[in-house]
Design brief:
By secondary structure, this protein is of the alpha/beta class. 42% of the residues lie in helices and 20% in strands. It has a seven-stranded mixed β-sheet. The chain starts with a helix and ends with a helix.
Length: 166
């Protein structure tokens, strides 16, 4: 019985640590290379620096992702309800052209970046932000700390509530 209890405690501890809310991005994430809409490479750190002093919602998405496309009306509602927030979209599309077409087709307003990595979500940048699902949302407060590290398309109430408190 003691062994079962100990196994339970260890399992619960490892689960709670794996789901811990991060307050800052790893060095690997900050060094992650993205491509901007002018086809120039920038680091994730440079992108975040651009929004210093602002609240930011980051969405990781792809034009081929049905859940991402399905969540677009909620994203647009989020933007309408929180106009002072900056919105950054990071695409996992396979090609630059598909990414650009997706932005235009879905009329996504905000700043756009593309992860130019042949391994896509499982590549270096995806691993550095613990990407396991898209769409993925992160909220960064005005001080540059992470307010929400991992939210998905079913978490819009949580995102809205967090934005109202920042």
């Amino acid at each position: 019985m003691k062994k079962i209890f100990l196994l339970f405690v260890i399992t619960m501890a490892s689960i709670s640590c794996s789901n811990a809310q991060k307050k800052e991005f790893s060095k690997d994430a900050l060094k992650g290379t993205l491509t901007d809409s002018d086809n120039k490479e920038v680091t994730f750190k440079e992108v975040l620096k651009k929004y210093k002093g602002k609240t930011v919602v980051v969405e990781v998405w792809a034009s081929w992702c049905g859940d991402c496309v399905g969540a677009m009306p909620k994203v647009k509602e989020l933007q309408a309800n929180n106009p002072d927030v900056a919105y950054v979209f990071i695409s996992m599309d396979k090609t630059f052209d598909k990414w650009q077409d997706g932005i235009e087709k879905h009329q996504i307003k905000g700043d756009h970046y593309w992860v130019n990595d042949v391994d896509g979500m499982k590549g270096a940048f995806g691993k550095s932000i613990d990407l396991d699902w898209i769409p993925r949302y992160m909220v960064i407060n005005k001080n540059g700390s992470i307010a929400i590290y991992r939210a998905i398309e079913t978490d819009f109430d949580k995102i809205n509530t967090t934005l109202k408190t920042l």
